User: Fold these one by one.
Assistant:
Number 1:
Amino acid sequence: MKIKKAFDICKKSHNIATFKINEEEQWLTNGFAAWPLCGVPDLSEEYICQLYDITDKQSEKIHFQINMNVPKTLNFDDACRYEIPAQPMTVNILIKGKGSLQPLIFERGLVLVEKVYLEPLTDTQEEDISYWIRYIDNESFYVAVKVGLLLCAVIYPTPMTDSDYTAIESIYTAAVATMRDKILSEKTESHNQYD
């Protein structure tokens, strides 16, 4: 995992927080996504600034929370009894004001996560990455991203409006119409060859 990339994401969002699951497991978060810091010593605000070239002027704009409480609603185990698989689509969706989004399909529909939160995993083969939905309650959930069997990121879904979903539905409707026309055209051409 590219730890520096995770710190860059937090730095850009002006929110750098760390928490420890246990004595050995430390995580980094910006409040929207979290990544494990494997092999990294206990961090302090000063050490983070020194290690990741954050100037005094930049640090004034960043909200630091070192060794914050572990978010109670999230499960950081590698395996979770109530997780369900989600399938990534091979297309990305770009929504104004939300950036590039990775669509995931699961049993209850569609969820989108910001692609930027997956960038720390770009040194990993895509086929080794799996996505899992973990429920907080009947309505709320988050995405657990694993490499092999190990949890490597926790990401909250991108909030979507009705108009966002309407736009996506329009794309689907247009794609279905295009495919239908293509199939009809191919059938017509095939039929004409035998006339």
Note: The mean pLDDT is 89.
Number 2:
Amino acid sequence: MLDHLKAHHDELYSLFSRLLQTTFDDARPQFADGSVDVLHIDGHHSYDAVMHDFETWLPKLSRRGVVLMHDIEVRDRPGFGVWRFWDEVKQHYPHFAFHHSYGLGVLAVGRDIPEGLRPLLMLDADGQDAVRRYFANLGDHLEELHGVAVQRENLQELLDAKSMDCVRLEGDIVAAVAERDAARRQHARMRYRIVDKLARIGNRIPVLPGLLHAVAVAVVRLLRRVNRMISPRRD
């Protein structure tokens, strides 16, 4: 998965972004205090793990810092405590919660709330519901598009497989036709040889021309019948 992500990321964002494969704790010394504008916490989902990640990274957040927490709506899985920590920490900061797709909490921990985020945090109850419905519908639409893309990819793979089958069948047909034509040529050569030999025998034994002629005619008729049997039918 990391290789797939890097192939997409590095081509578009490598001028100002890099990917680190590490833990939250090991990555922390690589960032100066007050330097992080957006922190997305989506690691271990226990209450203690989320609280540890939040508290240890809080000094790294800038004056405009925003923390995103995933899975704040997952309450029925053993060991998941993000929802409980969210319920506690949101009491101390301006916040907004999305409920769809397991939930996403938006927490403005910096003293200077970004201007683009301020209207979201100041919505009344009706406005919050409208925003949640909009993004939930948008997410459903994106999931449908993804499903269609997956189906299209599967159908393309099936079409490619069927195309290869057609190519193989065409090869088999060409080989069969070539084999049939070779058999017809061989049959024609045999017919001419037999007729030629019968004619030579007739010339050598003048007393049997009538009998040999009858035999030759019968042989030719037989060969014609065989030829019709190996020739393609015309409906």
Note: The beta strands are 36-41, 61-70, 95-98, 104-108.
